[in-house]
What we know:
Number of domains: 1
Largest sheet: 6 strands, antiparallel
Strand content: 25-35%
Shape: elongated
Helix content: 10-25%
Number of helices: 1
Radius of gyration: 29 Å
CATH class: Alpha Beta
CATH topology: minor pseudopilin epsh fold
Amino acid sequence: xxxxxxxxxxxxxxxxxxxxxxxxxxxxxxxxxxxxxxxxxxxxxxxxxxxxxxxxxxxxxxxxxxxxxxxxxxxxxxxxxxxxxxxxxxxxxxxxxxxxxxxxxxxxxxxxxxxxxxxxxxxxxxxxxxxxxxxxxxxxxxxxxxxxxxxxxxxxxxxxxxxxxxxxxxxxxxxxxxxxxxxxxxxxxxxxxxxxxxxxxxxxxxx
Length: 207
């Protein structure tokens, strides 16, 4: 008979249920942290892109005025501009428009007879293009307290810059030297940016 001596029997030990649950919890926790940071970073990029595009579109309206670009077959009397209405449903971004009648503000229902072959009975709208922000990004404030609409118009050949705000339905005199727009993220996010435009046509982005 053979005798086995000094033979160590190895015991294989597996994971307990508690250990598995701890590992799963750690994985879920790390995934949540990574996802939250990813979402926040995505929102910040959306905000930055929207702010940059708004600044470029303001500059585009200025260039359209300087180049005397035709709209509906004629050169707008007042040039081109940007219109923002904070009271619009869901804040529908902003509008590039042709100031056909030279009144330095956007006429939603048409530019009267100054636009091409328009007639009082059938005026052409002054809207050139409607631009929307990325989802969740919005203009939440104008620099003048209580103002809810902005008309920013560039009139050639300089071009002359006319800034007009509307506060509680009352239109201000178009003599502002500078206007600021606060662009922000949804759900009360703290991060936001400002775009400022002055009467000399300078545009800059700031925190």
